[in-house]
Design a protein that fits this description.
The structure is a single chain. 52% of the residues lie in helices and 15% in strands. It has 13 helices and 9 strands. The chain has helices spanning 7-23, 26-33, 41-51, 69-82, 88-102, 105-117, 131-134, 242-278, 290-326, 331-340, 344-366, 378-392, 395-405, and strands at residues 122-125, 155-160, 163-174, 181-188, 195-202, 208-213, 222-234, 280-281, 284-285. The two termini are 34 Å apart.
Length: 414
């Protein structure tokens, strides 16, 4: 493993940091989250047209840049620094990889170039508060019970004249209120023979109702979607096994989320160090007190450790994706890959969320009176940590599942 960044990776980070520094300051951030969509469409267009961000990890054959999950994760680090409210996570990290992995040739040819150009945003809709389980980050559910288990509730799918219909409700869908395409996980086949399939639902489909939810983290907008016998298109075909695909997606998504959290933690630590160097108490800068130095040093070590884990998880996710494409599709290889899912990514995500929560809390405390005000941005970073842990954690479950997947606590054989 070569831990050095390539010139191309450094250029992606530098260019994105400069652009977001100009276009996504505190005032622009607050203005964007107050819009109905929850993000600035003009910024998203700029990121797509100038940097090709939505298609960064998509093949060039579909209009993408042709990079790997590592480059996508490094881009997430820069968006995390500014808490940029964009559809990047929902569209490029969660939805696009599923379209690429499971879609038919016609579906990929129709949808992926539009995603790569920024003209189409997408969102993954998983029933109930089960996104982390569906992505195999906090548990393993071989039957997909999180999608409704074939019983009432969740989202159900049934054959209809000329295709499929889906009905049900999903309460926490990242960008679900504004995405132009929904990738909906639903149970099909009734209780006895039920299985989870993924369906494509257009944002303007008849019978679809969407509303933006009030979320703890306003920079991560969520929507509630209601499906009343909505016409849907099956993603891929019925022979596709969606659960392993979701598990593979989970490791990549966890790496991107971990690096995003590290970017946010690094930024709030920078701001805090800068502030305590300026704020004076008893005739000297607050940052000169030994107790403050120790607290910031501990936070720095925690952030750096989380950064190393997140970078490794991103590298491992890219290497795993390459191995999956080139490896022979045998049952043994599939079982081995499944056993590794969620370990590096899940552990890195747990460490990064913990680092962000600790650093944001220290930032609020050390900013003194202004740190507790609504007008200061420190609380936004703390809410990002708490919101992500609610969606993709909690931290102790991420670690517990990674330990189970790695067989850490199993007794050795004779």
């Amino acid at each position: 493993m070569d831990a050095r960044f390539t010139d191309e990776q450094d250029e992606i980070r530098r260019t994105l940091r400069e652009l977001l520094g100009k276009r996504c300051g505190p005032e622009e951030l607050r203005a964007a989250v107050d819009t109905p969509a929850g993000h600035d469409p003009a910024l998203w267009t700029t990121l797509a047209e100038q940097l090709g961000l939505p298609g960064l990890a998509l093949p060039e054959a579909y209009g993408g840049v042709g990079c790997t999950a590592t480059e996508l994760a490094l881009a997430c680090e820069e968006t995390g620094r500014t808490l940029a409210p964009t559809p990047l996570l929902a569209t490029a990290v969660l939805a696009a990889p599923l379209l690429l992995a499971l879609g038919t040739g016609a579906q990929r040819a129709e949808l992926l170039p539009r995603i790569a150009s920024g003209a189409l945003t997408a969102a993954l809709a998983v029933p109930g508060p089960a996104l982390a389980t569906a992505l195999a980050l906090t548990g393993h559910d071989p039957r997909g019970e999180w999608a409704g288990g074939g019983r009432a509730g969740g989202v159900q799918a049934r054959r209809a004249e000329g295709g499929w219909q889906v009905y049900g409700q999903v309460d926490q869908v990242l960008d679900g209120h504004s995405a132009q395409l929904l990738v909906v996980a639903a149970h099909a086949g009734g209780f006895a023979r039920s299985r989870v399939l993924l369906f494509l639902v257009r944002g303007d489909a008849a019978g679809l109702t969407r509303v933006r939810q009030t979320a703890l983290d306003a920079t991560r907008p969520q929507g509630r979607i209601q499906l009343r016998h909505v016409s849907a298109e099956l993603l891929g075909d019925e022979t596709v096994d969606t659960l392993p695909a979701l598990a593979r997606l989970g490791d990549t998504a966890a790496a991107c989320l971990a690096i995003e959290a590290v970017g946010a933690a690094g930024r709030v630590l920078e701001r805090t160090v800068e502030y305590v160097g300026q704020r004076e108490q008893f005739g000297r800068p607050v940052g000169s007190f030994q107790a403050v130095k120790h607290r910031l040093a501990d936070a720095y070590v925690q952030v750096q450790a989380a950064r190393s884990a997140a970078y490794y998880a991103a590298w491992a996710a890219a290497a795993e994706a390459t191995a999956t494409v080139t490896a022979t599709a045998t049952a043994t290889a599939t079982a081995t890959a499944t056993a590794r899912e969620g370990t590096a990514g899940g552990l890195a995500l747990a460490q990064a969320l913990e680092a962000l929560r600790r650093t944001a809390a220290e930032g609020i405390q050390l900013h003194g009176g202004i740190g507790f005000t609504w007008d200061h941005e420190a609380h936004l970073y703390f809410k990002r940590a708490a919101g992500d842990e609610l969606l993709f954690g909690p931290v102790h479950r991420l670690r517990a599942h990674a330990a189970d997947a790695a067989h850490v606590f199993e007794e050795a054989g004779p």
